[in-house]
Amino acid sequence: MKIVVIGTGYVGLVAGTCFAETGNNVCCVDIDKGKISRLRDGDPVIYEPGLETQLKKNIKAGRLEFTDSAKEKVGDCDIIFLAVGTPTDKDGSADLSYLLGSAKGIAPYLKGYTLVVNKCTAPVGTIHKIKDILSSGIPSGVKFDVASNPEFLKEGVAVQDFMYPDRVVLGVETERAAKILYELYEPFVRNGNPIHTIDIKSAELTKYACNCFLATKISFINDIAALCEKLGADINSVRAAMATDQRIGKHFLYSGVGYGGSCFPKDVQALISTGSDCGLELPLIRSADKINTLQRKRFLQKVIDYFNGDVKDKVIAVWGLAFKPQTDDMREAPSIYIIEELMKRGSIVKASDPVAIKNAKQAIRGNVQYFENHLDAVKDADALLLLTEWNEYRSFDGERLKAYYGGKVIFDGRNIWHSEDIKAAGYDYYGIGRS
Predict the structure, then answer these.
(1) What pLDDT sits at residue 421?
(2) How many CB atoms lie within 10 A of CB 76?
(3) Which pLDDT score, from 0 to 100, does residue 211 have?
(4) Which DSSP string do the residues of 295-330 spell out, in sequence order?
(5) Where do the structural domains in the chain lie, given as residue ranges?
(6) For the packed helices 200-231 and 283-306, what is the interaxial angle rounded to 10 degrees?
(7) Among residues 18, 28, 228, 263, which one is catalytic?
(8) DSSP state of 285
(9) Category of 232 on φ-ψ map: left (φ > 0), alpha (ψ -120 to 50) or beta
(10) pTM (predicted TM-score)
């Protein structure tokens, strides 16, 4: 198939590259000329394991190309995927200006029958807004269908998720649209995982329902972790026992400093806004959002309390800046709030991350000292904070750490270390939900 993808962010770039990997001819479009130039050279711009290899492979094979002008391409394709940003607006709702603008931009250039698919996370009813825009803007006699195809990619394993999806959700209005999308996605689900063909509104809501459920699960276990600390229980033991219940499961049941990234915070806010528009409070979703904000404050307070309320001139080392491992994404990363609040109180922050330092410099306000080697970051530090569970941090080597770190305390914001090992090395240990 001939496919055009509008937008080269995480979703658009991964989708376009993976569609090319299965033999389709794909053109990705973005208005950022500098970004397009880098992509043409095989530079994926974002850090995502496996993406660069597939990107270069399919460019070389002639199946994947990039342009800053959609005009020449959208008139000669079978499917157009809209994969632009839908950021949070000032009122918490999803800002659809980029998405609706992209629909308006392609409408005059459609020629033969085209299937226009929204792959962005957008509120229920967005597809019908796109349909209205296309109907009023396309040349006379041109036929098209619209569809919703939400993505369920996890940053850090996005290529794997796309190539081997748990499920594919197709929101369609016509048999023709359903047949085209089924044919496109069939190579990705030959392991037997389902393709759900449903109505458009249900498809649009499914993405929000999934993300908000997972966000709620994270906030739930963080609330239980706070209770563990008060009662002298251990959240790791509680979690292990809970996770064996098949009705609950182990995934997204890890306590920490809260969720971040491009999806959960934005989608939780957007669903709350959608509920308000319908006259619904959605108290559970609102609570998940409040708990997530509170969790960062709880962690920060542990650091402040350890120093008897005064962290001025204290040197704080931070390991891990990205909102999760295997990505350089700093959007809504808990590290931003924690570091900025420490600096407001006069702390000196020395930070390290395997891949996110460049983006962290743009995201974090203040004079943070950055180090490529995480051990260099702890020199002369008074405290060490672990905020992202990168693999290279997981094995705790007390003797090696002592050669660099002369402080007395470690705050494990992801519970990746055994408290006994930390204490045996001579450090005070503070985790999440651990007495």
Answers:
(1) 94
(2) 13
(3) 96
(4) HHHHHHHHHHHHTTT--TT-EEEEE--SSSTT----
(5) 2-198, 264-430
(6) 40
(7) 263
(8) H
(9) left
(10) 0.92
Q: Which stretches of the chain score pLDDT less than 50?
A: none
Helix (H) or strand (E) holding 345: none
Q: Using CA atoms, how far apart are residues 1 and 26, in angstroms rounded to an integer?
A: 8
The model's pLDDT over 29-81, given as tens digits with 9 standing for 90+, comes to: 999 999 999 999 999 999 999 999 999 999 999 999 999 998 889 999 999 99
Rounded to the nearest 5°, which phi and psi values hold at 421?
A: -65, -40
What pairs with residue 81 in β-bridges?
Answer: 5, 117
- Check whether domain 264-430 has CATH 3.40.50.720, yes or no: yes
CA dihedral 132, 115, 165, 285 (to 10 degrees): 0
Asked, colleague to colleague, whether 2-198 and 264-430 share their fold, the answer is yes
Q: Determine phi and psi for 370, rounding to 5 degrees.
A: -110, 145
User: Is the distance from CB of 154 to CB of 135 less than 8 angstroms?
Assistant: no
What type of residue sits at position 73? K
Residue 251 burial (CB < 10 Å; 0-12/13-18/19+)? Answer: exposed
Rg (CA), the chain: 24
Identify the helix (H) or strand (E) that includes residue 358: helix 357-363
**Packing angle between helix 200-231 and helix 235-243, nearest 10 degrees?**
140
Percentages of the chain per state (helix, strand, coil), in multiples of 5: 45, 15, 40
The DSSP 8-state label assigned to residue 364 in this structure reads S
- Alpha carbon of 366 to those of 194, 263, 279, 357, 382: distances in Å? 48, 26, 41, 14, 19
pLDDT in tens, 330-362: 999 999 999 999 999 999 999 999 999 999 999
Contact 312, 336 (CB under 8 A): no
The Cβ of residue 223 has, within 10 Å, a number of other Cβ atoms equal to 17
Which residue's entry shows tokens 């930390």? Answer: 422
387, 431 contact by CB (below 8 A)? no
Instruction: Give the SS3 label for residue 318.
Output: strand
Q: Which residues pair with 116 in a beta bridge?
A: 80, 146
Architecture, CATH, for domain 2-198: 3-Layer(aba) Sandwich (3.40)
263 annotated active-site: yes
- The owner of tokens 């090992």 is 421
Short-list 141, 136, 292, CA closest to 211: 292
265 burial (CB, 10 Å; 0-12 / 13-18 / 19+) is buried
